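Table 4 source record.
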Amino acid sequence: MKKQRPPLVPCPHCGTRAIIRSSEQISPLVREADYRCDNIACGHTFVVELAIVRTIVPSACPRAGIHLPRGNPNLGPRRAPQPANDDTRSPANDPGPLTPAATDMSG
């Protein structure tokens, strides 16, 4: 299994990247990590909470007691797929009803 890199978190004060110093699993869905600003002039140390908040694709081996909402609430309600712009149009060279010109240019 590939080792995951910790999330990049900038210092909330000076914006310099912060380095993870330690972390602790709080629950199956929450982890806390202590970060320290990499800017020695700043030196801010702070705690970040990383939480699993929803399921996008359900697990093939779900764990008892883990209940997560499904989907992405930012996308709004699910809608039926809409056809592409050209899915319902007839090609220009297909026979079909002809409409007379608005003005007669012969004459």
